[in-house]
Amino acid sequence: xxxxxxxxxxxxxxxxxxxxxxxxxxxxxxxxxxxxxxxxxxxxxxxxxxxxxxxxxxxxxxxxxxxxxxxxxxxxxxxxxxxxxxxxxxxxxxxxxxxxxxxxxxxxxxxxxxxxxxxxxxxxxxxxxxxxxxxxxxxxxxxxxxxxxxxxxxxxxxxxxxxxxxxxxxxxxxxxxxxxxxxxxxxxxxxxxxxxxxxxxxxxxxxxxxxxxxxxxxxxxxxxxxxxxxxxxxxxxxxxxxxxxxxxxxxxxxxxxxxxxxxxxxxxxxxxxxxxxxxxxxxxxxxxxxxxxxxxxxxxxxxxx
Amino acid sequence: xxxxxxxxxxxxxxxxxxxxxxxxxxxxxxxxxxxxxxxxxxxxxxxxxxxxxxxxxxxxxxxxxxxxxxxxxxxxxxxxxxxxxxxxxxxxxxxxxxxxxxxxxxxxxxxxxxxxxxxxxxxxxxxxxxxxxxxxxxxxxxxxxxxxxxxxxxxxxxxxxxxxxxxxxxxxxxxxxxxxxxxxxxxxxxxxxxxxxxxxxxxxxxxxxxxxxxxxxxxxxxxxxxxxxxxxxxxxxxxxxxxxxxxxxxxxxxxxxxxxxxxxxxxxxxxxxxxxxxxxxxxxxxxxxxxxxxxx
Lengths: 305, 296
What we know:
heterodimer, A: MetI-like fold, 15 helices, globular, disordered N terminus, B: mainly alpha, MetI-like fold, 72% helix, 0% strand, transport (chain B), transmembrane helix (chain B), ABC_transporter_permease (chain B), cell membrane (chain B), MetI-like (chain B)
């Protein structure tokens, strides 16, 4: 796509079906790119400020302004953020929260994507009486504010004996990830040629055989999209972590907030920004690596959800 | 239940039903059960623990008699109106600009959308730092001798909510842009040719032809963004902790505080029920419209 556009421009746009020919430096083109560039700078500014601040020492931060590049680059704030930043009396760094987030995210993503894929498959090929009703309520449930279900969920987790453990958070993420991911899988499976399913049925394959032998091998793209949505969503979660994980298992977002908004002590802005970047790193990497799939995922999930 | 007398009907598709158990449990226990539980106990005098001592609408009248709650509703309304207005304008304009067959389309789109990948906690902390009255943008303005040196958005109870709007917009416009772009790309190019043949200028085509055609995208975006606004919580916690005073308090934070910090469960449940009603007011017209579309 990008290549095609470039060649078009270089060729001076000769194809008659295309847009009105535009000169490279026409006033409208210059205005267009100026606006886009200014907007892009605005969106990039916070990232720049974070990076720059995290590479300065405190005296430089107090002296200069937040947009000035570091005079002397230091990686000490990063080291400190990772292994020595304090939440209250505990000074073992943001790495504690990082590993808790990893421990929460991995099972949450695996379980929720597994359940959503089977749900979506069932809803596409094995509808039973009432299944569409369940699905409709499930989709509407995605819009109910979490606050409405929080307290009863706490009671349920207590009764299950998993409150204040990682498994409570995993269960909550699985529940609230179900609507959008089930929708994604349902729409994907519905777009596959139905002959595949029919042929497998004629050959005598059952519910699980069709799923594992026919559908799974064909659905890698949608698995990736669904995993992107879940990894970024779960990693970025704050509310469920605060309530269900318990002090010992706070995910990275909660620990980051506790470090930066700690009441006592001198505010170390450079360490705080390094910790913030470390927390944002995982979803950012997922975003940059997955590119179009991320866009596809949120567009597909949002437009119909 | 109608099929209870026919075991065959219940056992038909048994594997599919077993596979759907997590979904059915979620719908029945969580989405329906927990919601009803909350509404039910919002009419009790529950404090530390839920009790079945019914007090009618007492919790609600106390709620709306509480200035902290009323402030949080006012804040949500201000935040919501500002964010919705600007997120739509900026998101749509960016989508239109990107849709002009530009070079580096991918780069621009990537830059506009990346904040959406970041959490509200990260967003809030960055903007807290940028708007820091002593070292952030106000200091920069001061150093340059520009007005606004005393600009302390976060410290002033009249302006703090707009600081949250700035951060919320930074995080959320990318999503709206992507949705709008998808909507623009979904419009038949014949429309554009016809408009051009008729000599209609581009801005009029957008305003009077394209936007009405994108009604569906607009409504869906509105529902998604609005239901996200109602539950805004992390951003406030990270950026202002609701302060100064309760000047940036929001309903979701009020609920959390009364449920888990102040052992005043009834208040928290009543407040969350009001949030639920708000979302229903947003959702019901949309659901009706969708339903009508499907029938016709």
